[in-house]
Amino acid sequence: MGYAIPLEVYEKLEEKLGKEITAIVVRTLEESIKTAFEEAQERQQIVISENLKKELATKYDLALLKKDIDILREEMHKEIDLVRKEMDIVRKEIDLVRKDMKIMEIRIIAILIITMILLNQNSLEFIARILGLMK
């Protein structure tokens, strides 16, 4: 961005200092102003850049977040595997209980039949009829 000294100021300086010295003074002032503007612009860019760095997630922040997500994902998979194993164990235990109950039912039926036979002689004849051994 260029900056030029107003014409009136230039003419007044030229009257007082002369053409050569005025040209040097004006050039020096313009360069000084230009440098000041550039430095101010650079400072502003640095401030904006620093503010953005504070506000926006950096690649490092994103990498850390991804790492945390991966760790959590691994932990969740481990937990899911543990739950599946526990479910398999519970299923096997349920199957064992069912088998035990069937065996218990058979024993109770056998005990009832034996008790019925011992307490009632006619029941033997009744059972034979049910099974089709007697007519």
Automatic annotation (TrEMBL):
Residue ranges crossing the lipid bilayer per the database entry: 108-131
Organism: hot springs metagenome
Protein name: DUF1640 domain-containing protein
Keywords linked to the UniProt accession: Membrane, Transmembrane, Transmembrane helix
